[in-house]
Specification:
The protein is α/β, with parallel strands linked by helices. It is about 45% helix and about 10% strand. It is built from 10 helices and 8 strands. The chain has a 6-stranded parallel beta sheet with strand order 1-2-3-4-5-6. A two-stranded parallel ribbon has the order 7-8. β3, α3 and β4 form a beta-alpha-beta unit. The chain is globular, with a radius of gyration of 17 Å. The model has no long low-confidence stretch (mean pLDDT about 95). The structure holds 6-hydroxymethylpterin-diphosphate.
């Protein structure tokens, strides 16, 4: 899953694709490089980020989704807002990626249930503005697993079908560096919930710290690849990445070796 942030302030590619024509070219390049999914987002969810009004979010993402709808790659919309979900599904997206797991907007679950699209339910506590203060766990793996189980049950109780659901442990969302590392080591236990598992590790700060680099976020692709391959070996089915070309080439080698 290639990441296409049509935002001025995303943590690693903010401002790069804000002009729709550059975003569309970047999306086509991701498709040509071998992405299976392109995840289009119009609101940064980095720690401390301010919410973006849904109409502004839609003005950023809808032209990009409309232009990419025929590129034979599945499109997902990275949003917490029900009206943006609807507009994106109408424009050609087939997957909803909601970092709030359908909790931020009370109308979101009904949209996903009615449209029958795939939905990624990610683990987070609070909102991007408040989550850093909520990173408190005795056993982060067991707790994230349990909270994801409750999140899935809530979505199902609102009419979403189990066959629509994928899950994501939410690396960097209400977790500190040690939590992220423990969660990655214990990923198999989250995968054992039995749903397709998305891992969003790309360029996250804890990987930069582990790799010893002090550079900017867009200089963390080597660390991201190492962590991504580990995630695949421990139950992940989708890697959400900024560097599609490098990841696809690494995966070809990995698949040739592992069968
Ligand atoms: N991480 C980010 C955004 N959306 N969605 C899922 N399912 N999993 C993630 O880990 C995830 C996500 C944050 O990364 P990015 O989109 O690069 O940055 P920003 O939120 O600043 O736009």
């Amino acid at each position: 899953m290639g990441i296409l942030n049509v935002t001025p302030d995303s943590f690693s590619d903010g401002g790069r694709w804000l002009d729709p024509s550059t975003a569309i070219v970047a999306g086509l390049e991701m498709a040509a490089a071998g992405a299976d999914i392109i995840d289009v987002g119009g609101e940064s969810t980095r720690p401390g980020a301010e919410p973006v009004p849904p109409l502004e979010e839609q003005a950023r993402v809808i032209p990009v989704i409309t232009a990419l709808r025929d590129c034979r790659v599945a499109l997902s919309i990275d949003t917490r807002n029900a009206t943006t979900m609807m507009a994106a599904l109408d424009a050609g997206a087939s997957i909803v990626n909601d970092v709030s797991a359908l909790r931020h907007d009370p109308a979101a679950a009904a949209v996903v249930a009615a449209r029958g699209c795939r939905v990624i339910l990610m683990h987070m506590r609070g909102s991007p503005r408040t989550m850093a203060t909520l990173a408190v766990y005795d056993d982060v793996v067991a707790t994230v697993r349990e909270e994801l189980r409750e999140t899935i049950a809530l979505a199902l109780s609102r009419g979403v079908a189990a066959s629509q659901v994928a899950i994501d442990p939410g690396f960097g969302f209400a977790k500190d560096g040690d939590h992220n590392l423990a969660l990655l080591r214990g990923l198999r236990s989250v995968a054992d919930l039995g749903y397709p598992l998305v891992a969003g590790l790309s360029r996250k700060r804890f990987l930069g710290a582990l790799g010893g680099g002090r550079g900017p976020a867009d200089d963390r692709d080597a660390e991201s690849l190492a962590a991504g391959l580990f995630a695949l070996e421990h139950g992940a089915t989708v890697l959400r990445v900024h560097d599609v070309s490098g990841t696809v080439r690494a995966l070809r080698v990995w698949k040739a070796l592992t069968g």
